[in-house]
UniProtKB/TrEMBL annotation:
It comes from Streptomyces alboflavus. This is Hydrolase. Keywords: Hydrolase. The keyword Hydrolase applies. The keyword Hydrolase applies. PROSITE patterns: VOC (PS51819). Signal peptide: none annotated.
Length: 260
């Protein structure tokens, strides 16, 4: 696969216990795992679905770091993207750095503090498969002020935006630069954090994995020691729910309309 500028190309989770994460996600999504990239690369462990790379798990190097999933947005020039991010009011948490022959990575935050990664591909391009059961399907940023966040992402990545009137909330979808904006080309979106979100919850990205059965995935997550943060519900784009794994990392699952 090749990924256009700003398109989600990878996700990983920073966990206190990678072996525990392998058991949880292996049963939930049917993933298998490699033996890890070794201490030189932070014992980074890739996950596979039918032999194709779909995600990674890594041990937290510092207990103060959040237990969370991070989405990586593709770029052809990580240094230039970092400059655009800073120029638009964001910040670089980790400046672009090479990861052996695999590529160049960085970690950024938008003007409200929502964190996302950058990936300039080397030998590792990103997802080998997506938008099918067990693989990544969607990402969205939860923001407080759309007047701040929308211009940031649309300016930095050139996204074309479209507001959705049928989402039941103030929701905007983004398509890559050059694509006609709309659900057919959208690669992510922006939701607003309203009164149902705790005041102390910071702006953040939520990453979705496709499943064949949303309710069964929620039940499996509970069985494995995770919890359901938002119960399964139907939307115009499928049945969704938000889950938290057995170590505290939040993510969502999506059962697409054709599977309902």
């Amino acid at each position: 696969m090749e990924f256009a500028e700003g398109v989600p190309c990878w996700v990983d989770a920073m966990l206190p216990d990678v072996e525990g994460g392998k058991r949880f996600y292996g049963e939930l999504f049917g993933w298998t795992f490699d033996d890890g990239a070794g201490a030189e690369y932070g014992n980074y462990t890739q996950a596979f679905l039918a032999g194709e790379p779909v995600a990674a798990l890594a041990p937290k190097p510092d207990g103060r770091m959040p237990t969370s999933w991070t989405v990586y947005l593709a770029t052809s020039d990580a240094a230039a993207l970092a400059a655009r991010i800073k120029g638009a009011g964001g910040q670089m948490i980790m400046d672009p750095m090479p990861v052996g022959p695999f590529g160049t990575t960085g970690l950024a935050a938008d003007p409200e503090g929502a964190v996302f990664g950058l990936w300039q591909a080397g030998t590792h391009v990103g997802f080998g498969v997506q938008r099918e059961p067990g693989a990544f399907g969607w990402t969205e940023v939860y923001a407080r002020a759309k007047e701040t966040v929308d211009p940031f992402y649309e300016g930095v990545f050139g996204y074309g935006g479209q507001d959705l009137d049928d989402a039941g909330e103030d929701f905007r979808i983004w398509s890559p630069a050059g694509a006609r904006p709309g659900p057919e080309t959208a690669i992510g979106g922006r939701a607003l954090m309203g009164g149902s979100f705790p005041a102390e919850m910071p702006p953040h990205f939520l990453n979705y994995f496709v499943v064949a059965d949303c309710d069964a995935a929620a039940a499996t997550a509970r069985h494995l020691g995770g919890r359901v943060r938002d119960e399964p519900q139907d939307t115009p784009y499928g049945r969704i729910c938000t889950l938290v794994d057995n170590q505290g990392a939040a993510f969502a699952v999506l059962q697409e309309p054709g599977q309902m």
